[in-house]
Amino acid sequence: VVTPNGLNVKKFSAMHEFQNLHSTNKTRIQEFVRGHFYGHLDFSLDKTLFFFIAGRYEFSNKGADIFLESLSRLNYLLRVHRNDMTVVVFFIMPAKTNNFNVESLKGQAVRKQLWDTAHAVKEKFGKKLYESLLTGQIPDMNTILDRDDLTIMKSAIYATQRHSLPPVTTHNMLDDSADPILFNVRRIGLFNARNDRVKIIFHPEFLSSTSPLLPMDYEDFVRGCNLGVFPSYYEPWGYTP
């Protein structure tokens, strides 16, 4: 008996539809990244690629070891050649945790606060602009924002100050010091520093649309990324993805 193994490529014939889905889900990932890297968002999301590896947490069998080594070299080459591209890499592998860490949750709260502030100011700005245009005048841009607006915006900007690097992992690990991914991240020195062109986000839990942190199902998340890397040691193409 010959059983099929792999992808049914006929499912992927409507390319325009999948391009639209990629764009929509990429936007959702970008929103998460904005929150995760608040205060250190000095890279352009328009020039950012999203890579991921996912599966059971088998550090060598799933190829996480060789993937980390290659990311270290990629980071070095991008820095040496002063390339302005950034690569954000997700490790989606379940490990023992005791919930999300505070810094990751705070990042999403800060992002939402900034979004709400921007929309509140925009509503007031829009109303003043509308009323000015009705009278046949171009508004004075120096006066269209009042002191309260500036105070609110300054307060929101102040909330984005942070004195620590964006976390490498989104959860509190039960055995942080012995975790293979975190151990090797420390060894190769990928700590999400400003001058790193490769950023690491270890999400030690399978994805779910009900998550308060990254509310996406796996299939949607995959559609939003640019590249999935599956350097599995023992499985043929098809099983792991």
UniProtKB/TrEMBL annotation:
It is an enzyme of class 2 (transferase). Its EC number is 2.4.1.11. Belongs to the glycosyltransferase 3 family. The gene is GYS2. The keyword Nucleus does not apply. This is Glycogen [starch] synthase. Transfers the glycosyl residue from UDP-Glc to the non-reducing end of alpha-1,4-glucan. Glycogen synthase participates in the glycogen biosynthetic process along with glycogenin and glycogen branching enzyme. Extends the primer composed of a few glucose units formed by glycogenin by adding new glucose units to it. In this context, glycogen synthase transfers the glycosyl residue from UDP-Glc to the non-reducing end of alpha-1,4-glucan. The keyword Glycosyltransferase applies. Pathway: Glycan biosynthesis; glycogen biosynthesis. It catalyses: [(1->4)-alpha-D-glucosyl](n) + UDP-alpha-D-glucose = [(1->4)-alpha-D-glucosyl](n+1) + UDP + H(+). Keywords: Allosteric enzyme, Glycogen biosynthesis, Glycosyltransferase, Transferase. PANTHER family: GLYCOGEN [STARCH] SYNTHASE, LIVER, GLYCOGEN SYNTHASE. It holds the Pfam family Glycogen_syn. Transmembrane segments: none annotated. It comes from the Eukaryota.
